[in-house]
Amino acid sequence: MTASPRPPCCATRPYGPFPRATRHLGRTNLPRLLLDERTARWVAARRRGLTVTQIARAEGVRHQYVSRRTIEYGPYPDPAVVEDWVAARRSGQHVSAIATTSGVSQSVIRAATKPHGPFRARYTRTPEGVLGVTALADRVGMSEPAVLNWVRAGRVPEPDYTVGGRRLWLTSTIEAWLAVADLAHCPQCGARCLSLGQHRASAHRASPTT
After folding, report:
1. 69 three-class SS
2. Is 27 helix (H, G, I), strand (E, B) or coil?
């Protein structure tokens, strides 16, 4: 009868002892000092705004384990970090830019700063030769809501640029469009409009008829 092969553990036993696995989904046999260093690293990451899920994925452990090890060292994110985010948003920085700089998700920044809002984006001055919706409305002599309706209806050319959600047109684009656009010209105010009768009825209702 042929003897069964010896299991690997029996074959290597004479050369032991061997260290046991040091980590399994968060459970470790690491020395206390290394455990404390790892916990401190996780706490620092959470204070910067990283989530327990992000930390757990990077460390190869369960997010519940990260939460248990760090929960007593909160609050998270650190109030000083949140203050920096709030200051950045108040200065006009977009959440995406803050998130990129901080290395955290936009949702974390929005949630942490929301109680300190509202925040309004601060736009830079529109360069010369470029028109936004407000400037376009001034150029055609119509109200901004009316021009926005034109934009939504596709009566205005596609914007040459879109920056931070703002639609921007080159002055040359608008001038070329006005040269061929099917718009009426109001002799009273110089506005360019879709219907001269409707424009007069709404914009010049109190004016004497000519």
Report:
1. helix
2. strand
Outline where DSSP puts E strands in 72-176.
Answer: 130-131, 161-163, 166-170
Q: How far is CA 144 from CA 7, 96, 104, 157, in A?
A: 82, 28, 37, 16
Query: Do 103 and 149 fall within a single domain?
Result: no
Which residue range is the domain that position 182 belongs to?
130-203
Q: What one-letter code names the amino acid at 42?
A: W
**Element (DSSP H or E) covering residue 146:** helix 144-153
The whole-number pLDDT of residue 160 equals 93
Q: Give residue 29's pLDDT.
A: 55
Q: What is the pTM of this model?
A: 0.46
Burial class of residue 186, CB neighbours in 10 A (0-12, 13-18, 19+): middle
Residue whose C-alpha is closest to residue 83's, from 71, 74, 91, 94:
91
